[in-house]
C-alpha cells in the first residue's frame, strides 16, 4: 500500500470504530468520572500512554487525578474511581492491581477491546472499544495495522472526545484548564 491508501484505510477503520461505539456506555463512563471523588488511572504500553494523557487532561479539568505508577500516588479508598485500560483484558499485573483496588473499595472501570477478559469480569463498569487489539478475542473492527495500533490510536482520540464532552457538560473553559497546566517547564 502507498501512503494515500494507508491513511485512508486507517481513517476508515477509525470511522467504523466510532460509529460502532455504544454512546450510552460513554455517557455512563462520563457520569462515573463526574461523580468520583478521586480518580486513579493505570495502563501499560501504548495503551498506557493514551491513558496517561487522559489522566493529565482530567487533572487540567480540576479532578483529583493520580497515575498509579507515580511515587506520590496516595492510597486508594472507597469512593475513588480506578480506570484501567486493558485491551486484551488479560494483562497480569493490571489485573493484580485491579484486585487490590477493588479490595480497597474503589469502583473499577475498565476500557477494553475484549469484554470477556478476566479484568473486565472483575470491573464494576466496562467501556468496550470495538477496535482490533493485540491478543483480543472479541469480534471488533478489523485492522490492517500491526498489533494493537487501532485500539491504541482510538484510545487517544476517544479520551480527548470524552474530555471535550465533559468540558461542555461541566461548563469548564479551556482557560480554566490552561490555568491548571504545569507552569514550571
Automatic annotation (TrEMBL):
Residue ranges of every copy of the SIS domain listed in the record: 29-172
Keywords: Isomerase
Matching InterPro entries: PHI/rmpB (IPR017552), SIS_dom (IPR001347), SIS_dom_sf (IPR046348)
Pfam families xrefs: SIS
Biological processes annotated in GO: carbohydrate derivative metabolic process
Keyword Isomerase included in the entry's annotation: yes
PROSITE patterns: SIS
Sample GO molecular function, one term: isomerase activity
UniProt KW Isomerase keyword: yes
UniProt record similarity statement: Belongs to the SIS family. PHI subfamily.
The protein, known as: 6-phospho-3-hexuloisomerase
Organism of this sequence: Leptolinea tardivitalis
Amino acid at each position: 500500500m502507498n501512503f494515500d491508501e494507508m491513511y485512508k484505510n486507517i481513517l476508515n477503520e477509525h470511522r467504523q470504530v466510532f460509529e460502532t461505539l455504544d454512546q450510552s456506555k460513554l455517557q455512563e463512563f462520563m457520569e462515573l468520572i463526574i461523580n468520583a471523588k478521586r480518580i486513579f488511572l493505570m495502563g501499560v504500553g501504548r495503551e498506557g500512554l493514551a491513558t496517561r494523557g487522559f489522566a493529565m487532561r482530567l487533572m487540567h479539568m480540576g479532578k483529583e487525578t493520580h497515575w498509579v505508577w507515580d511515587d506520590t500516588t496516595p492510597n486508594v479508598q472507597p469512593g475513588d474511581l480506578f480506570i484501567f485500560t486493558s485491551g486484551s483484558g488479560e494483562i497480569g499485573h493490571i489485573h493484580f492491581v485491579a484486585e487490590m483496588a477493588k479490595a480497597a473499595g474503589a469502583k473499577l472501570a475498565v476500557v477494553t477491546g475484549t469484554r470477556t477478559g478476566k479484568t473486565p469480569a472483575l470491573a464494576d463498569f466496562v467501556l468496550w472499544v470495538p477496535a482490533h487489539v493485540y491478543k483480543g478475542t472479541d469480534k471488533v473492527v478489523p485492522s490492517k495495522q500491526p498489533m494493537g495500533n487501532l485500539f491504541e490510536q482510538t484510545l487517544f482520540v476517544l479520551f480527548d472526545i470524552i474530555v471535550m464532552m465533559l468540558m461542555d457538560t461541566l461548563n469548564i473553559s479551556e482557560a480554566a484548564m490552561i490555568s491548571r497546566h504545569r507552569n514550571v517547564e
